[in-house]
Design brief:
Elements (H helix, E strand, L loop, with lengths): L31 H24 L3 H26 L2 H7 L8 H25 L3 H27 L4 H4 L5 H20 L6 H25 L9 H23 L4 H31 L2 H12 L3
Helix pairs in contact: 1-2, 1-5, 1-7, 1-10, 2-4, 2-7, 4-5, 5-7, 7-8, 7-10, 8-9, 9-10
Membrane topology: Multi-pass membrane protein
Keywords: Cell membrane, Membrane, Transmembrane, Transmembrane helix
Subcellular location: Cell membrane
């Protein structure tokens, strides 16, 4: 009988044709896209808070929220157009409305939301046509939730593994981050005595963002590795630490201006790190074939 050779089977290497990635990596640039994702989410959440604050009699907070929503949508639109390269490319996306396309829905949402928040803010600041301003603010509250989350659906609708497999969690991650961002922005721009609802929003948003991020990385398993490794891992860890610290400080920020400033800045920095980290994780997962091949093989083996 031949002797049995004691050999260890080496791990399979996932190679692609001519060493190229299996899928194309995202070509979005920094800082344009991650900052746009942050500003769009903040604007969407702030517009909802503006409508709620107006109805509940928090006039100073409502004014700050209207201005924040308009500023976020306006600056975000400029960044998006800059990313696209030419303004007509954004206009071309408005030629047709396709409910099944996240890009089409997002483009129309941005256009409507930007116009409504601009009108609402202008009427609130100038005092002209208050009825029109109230109607625009109410309209912004309708487009706000879509504005805060459509970018997560847009990312998940791609073939990038770290985004596509996170379809269930990314909208909640972005929604929580948007709420925390809006709360932080309004904490910094509203007198402490009237910023109570903003602090509550910041705490709730920070908790939701942290929980969604942890659930996402745990459920994704192998495909969640890019969120823990390299630059993306550092950004996501920084985001979690800053968001948690900012949320905890927001709970007691009513006591002093210093705590308010620290909380607002920490949450804002954490939200930006989240957007940069998610984009970087997407690039990492697209560059390594194993994040595409291994899940496919597992689905085939499971008969899915």
């Amino acid at each position: 009988m031949p002797k049995r050779r004691d050999e260890t089977v080496p791990e399979a290497e996932f190679r692609s044709y001519y060493g190229r990635p299996v899928i194309k990596a995202p070509v979005w640039h920094e800082p344009h896209m991650p900052v746009y994702l942050y500003l769009g989410g903040m604007s969407g959440a702030a517009s909802v808070m503006a409508a709620v604050a107006r109805v509940t009699g928090h006039d100073r907070l409502a004014l700050a929220a209207r201005v924040a929503a308009a500023a976020g949508a306006g600056v975000g639109s400029v960044l998006l157009i800059t990313e696209l390269g030419r303004p007509e490319r954004f206009l071309n996306m408005l030629r047709l409305f396709k409910p099944t396309s996240p890009m089409s829905v997002g483009s129309w949402t941005l256009a409507a939301h930007g116009g409504l928040t601009a009108i609402g803010a202008a009427c609130a600041v100038t005092g002209v046509l208050p009825a029109v301003g109230r109607a625009a603010t109410a309209g912004g509250a309708v487009t706000g939730p879509v504005m805060a989350t459509y970018t997560a659906v847009l990312l998940a609708d791609t073939a990038v593994p770290a985004w596509h497999e996170a379809l269930c969690e990314l909208p909640f991650l972005f929604a929580g981050s948007a709420l925390a961002s809006a709360g932080a922005a309004l904490m910094l721009t509203t007198p402490r005595a009237e910023a109570g609802p903003a602090r509550v929003a910041a705490v709730a948003g920070a908790a939701a963002e942290t929980a969604a991020g942890m659930l996402m990385e745990r459920r994704l398993g192998l495909v969640g590795e890019p969120y823990r490794l390299g630059r993306a891992g550092r950004l996501m860890k920084a985001s979690r630490a800053l968001t948690l610290a900012g949320g905890l400080l927001a709970a007691v920020a009513g006591r002093s201006r210093a705590l308010t400033a620290l909380s607002g800045l920490a949450i804002t920095a954490g939200a930006l790190c989240t957007r940069f980290g998610v984009l970087e994780a997407g690039r990492g997962s697209a560059a390594d074939p194993k994040y595409t091949v291994v899940p496919q093989r597992r689905r085939v083996a499971a008969g899915d």
